[in-house]
Design goal:
Its main location: membrane. The protein is mainly β and about 650 residues long. The chain contains six helices and 35 strands. The chain has one domain: TonB-dependent receptor, beta-barrel domain (Maltoporin, Chain A), CATH 2.40.170.20. It starts with a helix and ends with a strand.
């Protein structure tokens, strides 16, 4: 009975707030319980396949507390509880994606087809979340060959073809996987997509929204003697197109179209050692190197301009288990280099930073119903900026959490955590002409949350209330004087609550969730125009979904996203409105041959052809004098996606 209760508590901590009461999905989440227990949100492969995820917006579409702004693929920014992704620790298979290239574009790029799952920890949390996780962390986990190989199978291939009606676009991918020997396996994947500018809900083509993307990915996995595991992967991703000079906004007289191309290369080595019969050793080591660059050709003015970001680092940790208890401890290190320049000297501007972290996190079962987690990390930041100023700051960040199963099925949760980030490298496109305040100091986050999780049979209900604060947030204020000086501008605050429920009855599953959030800096609402790279204000958001499995070969479903409008939002340049909207998506999965060897998927995004501006995008300032053209791109109108997947 005690073991059952412990599993229930782990599951309560692991489960996504919108997860249906679907035992199949929950079992998949429980596979890596030690890590999953720390994740507020887990998005699995099933969710990505249902709506033929093509970008970050599709990946997080089912989350009311995660928003993606920017209709243009290269401009997409992710917001968790109102905080923008530069305030989070983001990694791909443990390789941290740090730094920003261009404040008017996004900094994250990912191919949904490669993903096994996505884990999101909202708010400052566990010491193992990594350095600088002021607003939480996002972990993208890619597939292994074993995730695709069937029992007894030595080789296979997966070919996918997709068409997109709105953009007259296509996407094609091919993945080959197999065992090289009893202990070694490999996976190689390539994909290409081509999209013309999309049509908005009014049927108008949106200039600057086209994209041509290519991906190459290879992974080698080895099961070494003495319970060792080795994984080596390399990914190359490119994104090319004709975009507005500031891709975050619409095309206008001052925001003309130019070629804007991006690329990311990531090499990651993961090593694991978990000897059977030795509970004190479960060693994980990660070494990575990521290079990202962006190139813009403002041909009628200054010509080509380049931005570069390079992250090299590693993480070494061990987990020791003492009966039902566990202790994870380790060290991580990262060096960041950011450069920018014109064609004659592409790396004329430079900043270099580094961070060394030491951490400890323990999970202790005080009783069979009460789990206590506590830890701390020490981070030491150093920065040499483009004006040869040097900064050095360090801090200790503690955390503590309780999960108490009061009665069978009902778990109460409460937690407090801190996180620290010292001065770091800045946006590469702002290196020229910008500087750091000589008195610049580090940022300190504090996150408090309480909630509960209730499960009975196939019914689930959960809720949480949170308050996050980031003291001495760093930014270079756009207004009022365009100083181009990075300084501590004040305190960020994010307050809100999340409620979700799910139920499964035979072949029918249903989910409903609601998120409300207020994000401010010194009492002023966060807006992406004034507080770029910090956060944005979103309206109250509902997400509802239904899925029905007719039989083992046919499944269909619906998802709706409903956002309440915000009227009279006060900014430093005037009052703006954010109109509300409701958007519906549907899908149908069919296995014509009765097996996964052939799968047809029909997805319709924005069924009602709704014309709207996502709250996570740049709001509309055009009614304010001298701010004509300051508005984000509208979202795509109806998009009919037809996908064919063939398994060999």
């Amino acid at each position: 009975m005690a073991g059952f209760r412990r599993n229930a508590l782990w599951l309560a901590l692991a489960a996504s707030p919108l997860a249906h009461a679907d035992p199949v999905s929950l079992e998949a989440i429980q596979v890596t319980a030690e890590r999953e227990a720390a994740s507020d949100i887990v998005i699995d492969r099933q969710n990505l396949d249902r709506y033929q995820a093509d970008d970050l917006n599709d990946v997080f579409a089912g989350r009311p507390d995660v928003n993606v702004g920017g209709s243009n693929s290269i401009a997409q920014k992710v917001y968790v509880r109102g905080f923008e992704d530069p305030l989070l620790n983001v990694s791909v298979d443990g390789a941290t994606q740090a730094g920003a290239l261009f404040h008017h574009s996004g900094r994250l790029s990912v191919e949904p087809e490669l993903l096994k799952q996505v884990e999101v920890n909202a708010g400052a949390g566990r010491a193992t979340d990594g350095a600088g996780a002021l607003g939480g962390s996002i972990r993208f986990v890619t597939r292994d060959p074993e995730d695709l190989l069937r029992p007894g199978e030595n080789a296979g291939a997966l070919v996918k073809l997709g068409s997109f009606s709105n953009t007259d676009g296509y996407k094609a991918s091919g993945t080959a996987f197999g065992r090289l020997s009893d202990n070694w396996s490999t996976l190689v994947s390539v994909s290409q997509s081509d999209h013309e500018p999309f049509k908005d809900g009014n049927g108008e083509r949106v200039a600057g929204s086209d994209a041509r993307q290519q991906l190459g990915f290879a992974k080698l996995v080895g099961q070494l003697p003495a319970d060792q595991t080795l994984k080596l992967s390399h990914e190359v991703r490119t994104d090319k197109g004709e975009r507005p000079q500031r891709p975050q906004w619409i095309v206008s007289g001052f925001n003309r179209l130019y070629d804007l191309d991006g690329r990311r290369d990531t090499t990651t080595l993961n090593y694991g050692y978990a000897p059977s019969g030795n509970a004190l050793v479960d060693l994980e080591a990660t070494v990575y190197h990521t290079e990202s660059d962006i190139e813009q050709n403002v041909e009628d003015r200054w010509g080509r301009y380049f931005g570069f970001s390079k992250n090299t680092g590693g993480d070494l940790r061990n987990t020791s288990r003492f009966g039902e208890h566990s202790l994870t401890y380790g060290v991580d290190y990262r060096e960041d280099n950011v450069n920018a320049g014109y064609e004659d000297d592409k790396k004329a501007e430079q900043q270099t930073g580094e961070v060394l972290g030491i951490y400890l996190q323990g999970d202790v079962w005080l009783t069979s119903r009460l789990l206590f987690s506590a830890g701390a990390r020490y981070d030491d930041y150093r920065l040499k900026d483009n004006n040869d100023q040097r900064f050095s700051e360090d801090e200790v960040s503690p955390n503590a959490n309780l999960a108490w199963e009061v009665v069978d099925g009902l778990t109460l949760k409460a937690g407090y955590a801190e996180a620290f980030r010292g001065p770091t490298t800045q946006d590469s496109f702002k290196l020229e002409g910008s500087e750091n305040d000589p008195d610049l100091k580090g940022e300190k986050a504090r996150n408090t949350e309480v909630g509960f999780d209730y499960r009975y049979d196939r019914f689930r209900l959960s809720a949480e209330v949170y308050r996050s604060e980031i003291k001495d947030a760093i930014a270079d204020p756009l207004l009022p004087f365009r100083e181009s000086i990075y300084k501590n501008i004040g305190d960020l605050e994010s307050d809100g609550y999340l409620i979700s429920t799910g139920y499964q009855w035979q072949a029918l599953s249903a989910g409903l969730s609601f998120h409300s959030n207020d994000a401010e800096v010194d009492g002023q609402p966060l807006t992406v125009y004034e507080h770029n790279l910090l956060g944005n204000t979103m309206g109250d958001t509902w997400i509802a979904d239904l899925a029905y499995r007719w039989d083992r070969n046919l499944e269909f479903g619906w998802q709706g996203r409903f956002v309440k409008g915000i009227d009279g939002l006060e900014t430093s340049v005037g009052t703006i409105d954010k109109p509300g909207y409701g958007v519906h998506d549907v899908f149908v999965h069919w296995l014509p041959t009765g097996s996964e060897d052939l799968r047809l998927t029909l997805t319709v995004k924005n069924v009602g052809d709704k014309q709207y501006l996502d709250h996570a995008s740049n709001a509309d300032y055009q009614h304010i004098e001298d701010y004509e053209g300051i508005v984000g791109m509208p979202e795509p109108g109806r998009d009919i996606r037809l996908g064919l997947a063939m398994r060999f």
